[in-house]
Amino acid sequence: CGVNHFLTTSALDRWTLAIQTAESRHMVARTFSVAFEGIEARTVEVQCAIAPGLPSFTIVGLPDKAVSEARERVRAALAAMQIALPSKKLVINLSPADLPKIGSHFDLPIALAILAATGLIPESKAAETLSLGELALDGSLVPVNGALPAALKAAELDCVLACPEACGSEAAWVGAATVIGAASLNDVARHFTGQAPIPAARPGEICAADHVRDLSDVKGQERAKRALEIAAAGRHHLMLVGTPGSGKSMLAARMPGLLPQLSPSEALETSMIHSLCGMLDEGGINRTRPFRDPHHTASMAAIVGGGKGAKPGEISLAHNGVLFMDEFPEFSRTVLETLRQPIETGEIMIARANAHVKYPCRFMLIAAANPCKCGYLSDPARACARVPGCGEDYMGRISGPLMDRFDLRLEVPPVAFTDLDLPASGDSSATVAARVATARQLQANRFGQEDGTHQNADLEGTMLEDIATPDTEGRALLARVAEKFGLSARGYHRVLRVARTIADLDHSDPVLRPHVAEALSFRLSHATS
User: Fold this and answer.
1) What is the DSSP letter of 169?
2) 267: closest CA among 339, 174, 347?
3) Are 360 and 319 in contact (CB under 8 A)?
4) What distances in angstroms separate CA 504 from CA 234, 250, 456, 507, one per listed residue?
5) pTM
6) Closest of 425, 423, 465, 467 to residue 446, by C-alpha
7) Mean pLDDT of the chain
8) Ranked by mean pLDDT, which of 6-15, 121-130, 346-355, 373-382 comes out on top?
9) Is 80 helix (H, G, I), strand (E, B) or coil?
10) Would you call 393 helix, strand, or coil by DSSP?
11) How far apart are CA 226 and CA 280, in angstroms?
12) Beta strands in 389-516 (DSSP E)
């Protein structure tokens, strides 16, 4: 064999001896891998038994098609190392047997279990290793998803994590785990035998934020800009209604520039979800809050998660960030109604016949809609013949309970073309972001959390009553409006939360009547009432 092969001349002798020994005794070796349930990595013990019997290679333990096909990939990868499987009965057991095993990342642990069972690598080394990676036919390791949650599990078990070299920088962000990133199965085997140790992987770079669109680019729309600032400060859900071209999408696209960076705990949790979908570029952790804008034709599985393996959907990919849903009434009614529970609880349970998977989805929802199907309900010169019935029918696609969950609602007026020549107006995104950061710090202090994972939108119960109850004049105003317009209990509490955020932006400890009045003005917009 050449110097680049795992088997040297002496190693060939050891391999021959191992095969002869396997003929006389029942050999079992074990290593570890993971199966994913949501963002949680469940430990899977990969056991390999070589016993006398007719030559066969069997994988048991609820493997899916990709895991079953690992037999041929492992066989070819071993052949590329000039290793042939023993002419015995070879059984791979993935334990626990009642946990479904999905994905090609079981290739590497299966191969390591076989190498340990045949004595080519020390059994003790394999037993102290948690690995994942797909094998190419030439023995090279192909990147797989989920390296970050796998590294967390390896740290919990005090195991070494072996993974493809391309995944090493991602997994190395978990400093408590020793991560070995290898280019091939041959490299992993040589590392475990001490022939060519692989240095521990180093974390990737923190990804730089994409170009942030500035709020000052928006001409006019001062009330809408104020709504964006309030929503950003308290993580309130926002509904924008306006004619086509009024700037709804342009305003929503400026929201990421108003939000503070992810805290370390938020970045880790968000990156774990993105890791499961293979969305971490070159192993880098992104501190910018995610902004997701799915098309209105997206299916329910694409929005809330599901499909094979119960993958996360857009609402989970927007965790700790912004979910922008343009043409909101055009989404499927089933999709819209499914949003009601995640908006309230910040998590989604994907229930399938053979799996119940939970994902976090604490996001800020920004919805945009035209006032009617044609879009020109308020323009007599351009409106269709069905006015005003078309507007009622179109907005009627959004149910009352779902609409009740929007803290801020406003109509975005059209911008005249003569206004486009005006210079940039209003505060820049950086200026507004500074005010938002100050308000969020007040909320973090109030919740007693350094990472600021909870905002005013999360206030409830006695805490809501204690810190968001207005002064006497504010309570009187709120009581009159609630009685006149029939605010629901949910709507009443959402007004209190928004008023608390406005008071925070105003650096006011008590919630005053002007704060309540402004919160009510956004709640009772005639465009969405």
Assistant:
1) H
2) 174
3) yes
4) 9, 26, 10, 5
5) 0.87
6) 467
7) 88
8) 121-130
9) helix
10) helix
11) 33
12) 408-412
